[in-house]
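Any chance you'd type out a single protein's sequence alongside its tokenized fold?
>
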Amino acid sequence: MVSLDPAQPVCVIGSGAMGAGIAQVAAVAGHRTLLFDADQDRARKAVDDIHERLRRQAEKGRMTSAEADAAGERIQVLEALADLRGQGCGLVVEAIVENVGAKQDLFADLETFVDAGCILATNTSSLSVTGIGARLSAPGRFVGMHFFNPAPLMPLVEIVSGLATDPKVTELVRATAEAWGKTPVDVRSTPGFVVNRVARPFYAEAFRLYEERAADAVTIDAVLREAGGFKMGPFELTDLIGQDVNEIVTRTVWRSFSHDPRYLPSAAQRELVEAGWLGRKTGRGFYDYSAGVSRPVVIDAEPGPRPDRILVQGDMGQLSVLLERSGVPVEHLNGDGVVVLPSGGMLTTTDGSLATARAARLGRPVVLVDYLLDPTTATRVAVAASERAPAQLLGEVTGLLHAAGVQVSVVDDAPGLVVGRTVAMLVNSAVDALWQGVAGPADIDTAMRLGTNYPVGPLEWGDRWGAATVVEFLDNLAAAYGDGRYRVCPLLRRRALSGTSLLAPI
């Protein structure tokens, strides 16, 4: 595929963090880069900031001083949009406020200022590319080019085709992103595209647990990091992104999907936005970033005495790794995958049901263990006890798991605990995107690994866990809540029944 000729100028509209970052990427790739903002002082400040970032890159040895100086010299502030006439731009990328009307008005103006062969691109993160380009006289040259913040560092770019986008335009823009050192994925214009659509459960399940008082924010964050393998927990991540930014993406996707309960916005997050507690940028979000205020610490469960012996009935799956690490003598019998502890209570892995429901079925008190990304490296695990479970049982469980070398976070009896329900919903969301033709399976997993730094792509994760297990898990969550949020994507159920890999194309 042929990319945009480096001799052709690129224009970026909007000089905020994203626009300035895109301008830096284009300039480093060799393009003369025009940066426009309605606030000229802001645009000039953005150029100064780019020069400083390039200088630091040279100091770190990531480019030479000559390369940094040359890239900086290729960037200039455009005084007025009308000045685009005669510039010969091959590509204009818009990075202004997330408002359909504002973007449509901008592109209507741009069409009168650029040559017929110039490609027009929007960096929208969740709005319809088809809708933004609907008023253009030549919508075939309009495409989504969604970078991730910070654009110079994040490798992913979603190349989003609207209904009218010319496939040749998509190919050229994808090749251009590759020439700029990025990893592009092809995406159809649907709400949230891939990353912002598939990622919603990572935030939504944590917020729901928080609102249900199953655990506090610091505990949920710790469990998802130390048991789930995520780089950041959802509360610290949304504080970094900005609660207002994250909330409006969720609300946009929810509205676009006709208020589907899978994308229901969080009342707790909305309250933060209304209070002006937007996260790091305002000094307060789910956490307090004021000077002198310490970050809250996770309160680990106090371990009880390690059991002298346990009875293991059947295959314990992931839990067998922790049982072996504990060093507790084990007697094995056939069974349905439970550990019988000296008190007579049982320990088993969550299947999406309430611990209390499992206890009712088994006729004994139960403690459930959360799902783990990798039981050989996990340093924390969440557990939940059934109603009226004796303290002795919880003490035996914490003693057993502590002997296995993991910290224990006790959460309320929430269906699916923390990691399990989050991963199950991410898998379901990714399969739903595949089913609806948003992107191919490899592109979906690549987008989620590079765009969100997930430890594993959700489709691969589903294959590791087993599609049939994920379906059973979601069905149990759906039975516990009964609100439609946890309904299984039909393609996921089909793949579970047929044994087909989730990574197989449709």
